[in-house]
Amino acid sequence: xxxxxxxxxxxxxxxxxxxxxxxxxxxxxxxxxxxxxxxxxxxxxxxxxxxxxxxxxxxxxxxxxxxxxxxxxxxxxxxxxxxxxxxxxxxxxxxxxxxxxxxxxxxxxxxxxxxxxxxxxxxxxxxxxxxxxxxxxxxxxxxxxxxxxxxxxxxxxxxxxxxxxxxxxxxxxx
Amino acid sequence: xxxxxxxxxxxxxxxxxxxxxxxxxxxxxxxxxxxxxxxxxxxxxxxxxxxxxxxxxxxxxxxxxxxxxxxxxxxxxxxxxxxxxxxxxxxxxxxxxxxxxxxxxxxxxxxxxxxxxxxxxxxxxxxxxxxxxxxxxxxxxxxxxxxxxxxxxxxxxxxxxxxx
Lengths: 174, 164
Hints:
The complex is a heterodimer of chains A (174) and B (164).
Chain A: H1 8-30, H2 33-52, H3 60-77, H4 80-88, H5 103-107, H6 110-121, H7 125-136, H8 141-148, H9 152-173
Chain B: H1 7-16, H2 20-28, H3 30-51, H4 62-88, H5 92-113, H6 121-137, H7 144-148, H8 155-160
Helix pairs in contact in B: 1-3, 2-3
């Protein structure tokens, strides 16, 4: 397929529209600020290449989400030490300054946020992906199933286990 | 629908919409309605917390978590090396065995070459002398009976050796 020039305006619009969302998605799935930023750059590089190949009919929002999930999964699989670090290293909160919070977010106590983050990170990688895409990103069950290559029933089971675990953690401490 | 809704069913209502029967049960059952509200509240709380940056960790247990595995691995490697060295180096017991054998051999050799025991030596020498002399002469030792019979003249041997 011949490369076509990418319209910089369109690319810039896509970047502005989706960068924060993709970064947040990667940050949730990787629990590492540097890794998340790195993978987000990779995702937008793939967006640039896809756009250059003339794939203008793609719905870029879901496409970016799918590419981001796969890139995060590849990054997690890159080495056992990264998996180990993901599991054991505390989140580098300093990389995400507390600004731009909504009133509801401000209202959340730090203890509650800490509990939620900790319980979220105790989930399996698959449960994290399902929860983020279904609950945070607001995808439909079918979209999540297509993206992750699972059945709808499996998505529902993963979501239920994730929600059950996090609620149990919250209820046990609040 | 008279039975109360399970947590799974409540989540399904929250995420997928749920069936008409489940919705009607929610309107009639105060307990399920309360549980459903609690679920919705928790989901909102979790979603809000995850969309916001995580709080700064006041106490970070990561330090010991990060270090305990390499520390344990280092200790295991050192222990393995020490045990390997100990195994390859001759143990005191293994060293003692050849030394003891050498010492015994040296004692035997010394005793053989430089015998200083005076208790048995003259007797042994005296008792063996007639036989040795007889052997050298290719004859019979001079016993008392043979001396008295005049067959030999070695008085000393005749005194020492009695016929059996």
